[in-house]
Design goal:
- By secondary structure, the chain is an alpha/beta fold.
- The mean pLDDT is about 90.
- A hairpin with a 4-residue loop joins strand 6 and strand 7 (about 235-240).
- The longest helix is centred in the N-terminal third of the chain and has 23 residues, at about 15-35.
- The protein is about 45% helix and about 20% strand.
- The protein has helices at about 15-35, 40-55, 70-75, 90-100, 140-150, 170-190, 195-205, 210-220; strands spanning about 60-65, 80-85, 110-115, 125-130, 150-165, 225-230, 235-240.
- The chain has a 7-stranded mixed beta sheet with strand order 3-2-1-4-5-7-6, sandwiched between helices.
- It has 8 helices and 7 strands, in the order H-H-E-H-E-H-E-E-H-E-H-H-H-E-E.
Length: about 240
Amino acid sequence: MAKSVTPYKDSSLGKKEQVAQMFDTISENYDGLNRVISFGTDIKWRKKVLKLVQDRKPETILDIATGTGDLAILMTQTQATKIIGLDISAGMLEVGRRKIQQKNLSSKIEMVLGDSEKIPFETNSFDAITVAFGVRNFETLENGLSEILRVLKPNGIFVILETSVPEKFPFKQGYKLYTRFILPLIGKLFSKDNSAYAYLSESASVFPYGEALNNILRKVGFIDVVAEPQTMGVATIYTASKK
């Protein structure tokens, strides 16, 4: 399994509580910083996730680690009648609710405070489940994935969008330079929480990706697992299903 990385090295809180605290702190700056850090490419990746979900014509969608709701908002372009965004950070959800209200989407999207490792919904509840840049924040990865499997309907689709590490020269070297030095610097300049973007960078560098994550998904019980690297491998879209 991946090395355990937490936002605050000197905190007595568990990873789950630290992650919630971190995202509460950076919630107001999060969207703008994401656009800067990814050079806007995260928008393109999310649209690919939308297409994968859209093709399955789901009626119910759960977006886990929804944050400020970017992906949940995008999912309103499907024909789904029920879209729920779940997150552990009340601060991120509050920003998301404001965005949803401004777009007049409050009747289509429900934002729920909750733990991805104890999902507050019944077994076989959702046709599609998505997670964008959230699985590496799970305290126990396999517990979170097992919960997702539980609430996914048989033959439903599960889509993960997550950072990964390029493997080819010179992208691998450039990625390491960017994430180790430039990303934390950008975070420090624009965020009042100096630890947050250092954590996001470090957690991305040690998180299992590609076939390693595919194998964990299979071990948990997912089927039809596929990984598709994006933009020279700096991110990967994973799809999986349930028997």
